[in-house]
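Format is chain and fold; as here:
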Amino acid sequence: MSVAADANRSDPRSLLQGIPQSPGVYRMLDAEGTVLYVGKAKNLRRRVASYFSRSRQLNRRIQLMVSLIADIAITVTRTEGEALLLESNLIKSLQPRFNVLLRDDKGYPHILLTADPFPRLTFHRGARPRTGRLFGPYPNAWAVRETLQLLQKVFPLRQCEEAVFRNRSRPCLQYQIKRCSGPCVGLVDEASYAADVVRTVKFLEGRAPELIDELVAEMEAAAAALEFERAAELRDRIEQLRQVLQRQYVSGEGGDLDLLACVQDGGQSCVAVMFVRGGRSLGTRAFFPRVPEETATDGVLAAFLAQFYAGHEVPGELVVGEPVEEQGLLEQALGEHAGHRVRIKSRVRAERARWLEMVRANAEVALRARLGSRAGYGLRLESLREALALDTAPRRMECFDISHTRGERTVASCVVFDGEGPRKSDYRRFNIEGITPGDDYAAMAQAMTRRYTRVQRGEAPEPDVLFIDGGRGQLNAAAAALTELGMRLDCLVGVSKGPDRRPGTEQLWLLGREAPVILPSDSPAMHLIEQIRDEAHRFAITAHRQRRAKARTTSVLEGIDGIGPKRRQRLLRQFGGMRGLIRAGVEDIAGVEGISRHLAQQIYDALHREAAGP
């Protein structure tokens, strides 16, 4: 539902006509239909009317927003809690200018224990698997890998992929260094391995004291039975486990909770989150939400809690550095979302107060580092403005690169940098088709045409500076493609290597200039250009390799009679990809559902002809 504003704003009451007195979400839109602000309310009419009340003192940010409002769209919900969660989802998807915005589009890493007869303990990021059990979330990949390494020393569960596990004929290095018990070659029976699995689960669930008691009792029983070697092995495990706990345990804590603190400085905000699961600290992660001017830390924390936990697992307890706005509503909405009671606490003492102070200190350190790096980045932007004779520092820069192997599977990349650095959500890649293999000029022209046709449709903003990885030829091809589209960018720059191809000797080619511009190797502008060019190169090579590998994999299997899409998918899934399939023997392939012995032999022969090459 939407309500149009008067053009002259003389009667704000006209804006409120038709808005019900129900809970829901409202969206403020400008004259072009762009969402300015998303908010929620228990009573939509009363809340929206408050923006136009002469008795209410509005800060400068809200005054500016109200002056831009041309339309209001509303969505009615059953409860205020539903409205809070809908508001959070809309803020993340619409990115309104006047809201606190959390940039957090990466899934959090977990530890996955698979459901195999000999379960695998491994790193997992992404959608929840259909089988197995997840532990976490962890703040970063490093924390997961450190935990896995520590667990391997105490409980030697396998971490190898299923294809490797199924096809081993002798123990690997992990067995030799006592990080795996060797289930792949039958060096441990299923019952003993299952016992280590149970102990690992207890540790990851935070039941380590119970686990240590069990190991102590088992050690004493082994010693009483004169099994001194077994007793010594258990003694070493107990000691290793205690060392792990000393590094990871939060003193006096049990269960799951997160501790959060927000600090502000230099117009920036940082929220640090410490994850505690099963009484163990999994580490701290810093977030830098985009915060409108004059937003206090309690408002930042409230917006962060709603947006972050609407898309992530919510522990039973959240400890925050200060009271937050609408705490009761947040507890209700997050509890409904999580399916269990959620409590938000700000007044804590003793050990929790010390841990909260540590989280705040982490936030301060992270914010200082960010401000320092942003100051350096701002210096490079200003240096680039001077080097390219621009009126203002560029707010958006794009860079294109082409990658192929002797003309095979050509891919073009487009990376985007804004005023804060790489904007990876805006990266794009283009599979180039219908050109002479190896014709980089034609590939560049096709990529430019496809990209800027979309820009003309309004799918992305125009860049202030467009970099092309290449010399005058690539630059002219890009310029011709833009001219064909009827576009002319103010600043188009080709970046080529110097005569000796050493880093720091790059040449900049500008349209209309015969000679290249050569900046000093220590120029901040040159460092920024190199960073952008290298990122485009990395992204292009990665995309090309993925496309080439997929094409080669598909072409080999598609060339075999009797292998359709379902059987091909089943084979690759069974062996964990093409590499595992190549390693498999005929009998292993024949063991896959729908694959006969004769067809398995054909697959084996085709794969090994391909691997051998001409």
Summary: The mean pLDDT is 83. The two ends are 66 Å apart (CA to CA).
